[in-house]
Structure formats: C-alpha cells, structure tokens
Predict the structure.
Amino acid sequence: MTRLPAADADHGIPAHKRWRLGAIPWLDEAERAPRTRVIVDNDFMGDPDDLFQLVHHLLSPSVEIPLIVASHLHAGEPWDPSENQAANAALVARDVMARMGVDGEDRIVVGAEHALVDPATPRDTPAARAIIAEALRDDPRPLYYCAGGGLTDLASALLLEPAIAHRMTLVWIGGSEHEGLGLLAPGVPPAEYNLTIDTPSARAVFGDTAIPIWQIPRPTYRQALVTMAELRVGIRPLGAVGAYLYDELAVVGTMLAQHGMNAGETYVLGDQPLVLLTALQTAFEPDPASSDYVTRPTPRIDADGLYVDNPDGRPMRVYTQVDNRLTFDDMRAKLAELAAWQAAP
C-alpha cells in the first residue's frame, strides 16, 4: 500500500533545487522539447507501481503533462478503505512531486470518489471538466490519456462532451485476457482488477464512445516484472526519490506478510508501459516501435467485466509484448540524473 503523507510534508528541498514541471534543469533547452501531451490518471493510494510511473513520466522531456488526475479505487479497498480515496491520491501525487523538487501542484485534480452508477450517467466533476478543456485546447501535438486504474473520470468527460473522443488516444493498463492472446495466470479472477474499479465506465468507454484505445491487458502488463534485488541495487541508491520508491514497495511486502502471504522476490511494475508507449517512441515515424501489438475490433464489455465480441467495433491496439529493457534502463538513467543534480552544490 502507498502510505498517506502529511498534507504539509516538507522534504527539505532547497529553493535552488526546485524546478517547474517540464523544465528539467539538468538538460539543455534543446533536449526539453515535448512532442506529445500526456494526461496522467492513476489511483495513487493503491499499488505503488503508479508512483514509479508518475516519477518516470515527470522526468521524461518528450512529454508535456498538463493534467494529473488522482482517481479512486474500489469502494472499501484494503489499500485505502476511506471515502476519500481520490483526495488522498492527490496528496500522494503532491508528495511525490515535492520529493522531486517539482513545482506543479496546479496540474493535479481530484477525480470522482465513486464509480459511475451506470454506463450512461457521468459524474460532472472538476476533473472531468479539466479533461474536456485540455482535449479541446488548440494544440497540434498528440494527446494521450494514460490511465493506470479505473476509467471513471475519462468516461465522465466523454459522456459530457463526446466530441473529445477524436482528439486523444486512451492508453490503458487494464482488462483481462483476449481469446488467443496472452497466458492466463493461475488463480486470477475472470474480470481484471483495474476494469472492476469501475465496470460501468469501462463499458461506456469501450462500447459507447469513439476514443481510440491502446490497451495493455493483464497478461501484458504482468510482463513488467522486476526483482527486488534489481531495485535494491539499481533504484534505492538513486537519491531520496529512489529510496522512497523502493521503500514503498517494501511496505507492500510487510503488509502481505501480516496476512500470511509471501510476495517472493519479484514485483510487477505494471503501470510502466504507460511511459514506454508515450514518452519512449521512435525519433522518426513516432510510434512505440519496440513493443508488439495486434489490431482487433473493440469489444463491448458486459456487466461482469468480460468482453463481448463486437465485429463492427472500431479498431483498437491490444499490446501483447512490452520492451522492459528500454523501460527500466531509461527509468534508472533518469532517476540517476535527478539524483546527481540534487546532490550537486
């Protein structure tokens, strides 16, 4: 579980080591040229893999992040059983940015605290309105909506203003196995975790909107597997931020042990493909060239969170393999650059 920080936590970052989101002061100006826009949407009070994704995206100079949506979990979720999951997620996002020395709190918006009641009824929240405003902003660069949890706020925005569907692409960590694609892990439930955070919203986004979808389903995001030894050696020594990320994963192991579970020596950092597919595209003919996908008609989703064949559905990408070498080498390098800059006089 991600530990809830104090609202006014001071991490002792001196003024000359603070930087505005997007500035990345250890890079030359020519290296800070965002060519895509990314809206980050994640349940930051849940599995700490979202913290790695947020830090990695914030350190990526090829993307501009105009909006960070702090979203909810399942009602009564053990990660955070409170009624303020989205608000707490926003506190976590602010705390992560404070640890990095990033001034960008104005980009964070609190999403809806509860799932949709049905696929046709949006939750008209400031987060949904902010999504609409960014999608309608006059900017020729591609806009990606990177979601690592449920889809409540995106679905609400699309239901409130359907025209934005043609102005962005959803990159989503979620959904169960497609027939003939990927391995079904033993013991997993039929419906995938992120989808069931808000099944009505997934039904709306897949079946009742026109937004293009790049899906990283369960068997693919489970490939983003690292060992705790790799993290101890490669991430924990990289300054205060690296140590924080490692420690948050260690808390999960302790929590599981208290419930009689042994987490072993690996961890799935399943939200990292969001960075891979958006920030780490090729220089020419930009695309996530080192990861594999198939194109399929977008299925509908039933009330149980399972796919329903829809041969006439719009084409969607279903990623079947992700480039972990590129992802994790890049994350380590960027954390090392941040740590070196923070340690310099």
